[in-house]
Design goal:
Order of helices and strands: HEHEEEEE
Radius of gyration: 17 Å
Structural class: alpha+beta
Strand order of the largest sheet: 2-1-6
Helix content: 25-40%
Number of helices: 2
Shape: elongated
Distance between the termini: 31 Å
Low-confidence stretches: none
Mean pLDDT: 96
CATH class of one domain: Alpha Beta
Strand content: 25-35%
Amino acid sequence: MHELGLAQETLAIALDEARRQGARRILCMRLRIGDLSGVVVEALRFALETVAENTPAAGARIEVDRVVPACYCNQCRCEFEVQAHSYICPRCGDISLDLRRGREMDLISMEVV
């Protein structure tokens, strides 16, 4: 379960930033996770809750923004959402391997006190 390692690293980043801000507690962590990232959101949520026990992030809400995959078509110079793992441009029918979003996992914000 690689979500445990991701949770540990995410928590370390969050705690480090909270310390830099002089915060005592982390109330909420907001993540952006791409559909093609390979992250199982519920497993990550569970792992984060577990590793956060006995830390300033214990009990923090975990909010997740899903990122739909999108490719860029070099032929017609447009970005399009990947539908059902089809990387075919809906405008021109060209195949695109230029994935612009959908693999990310980012800690994008926190609520702290």
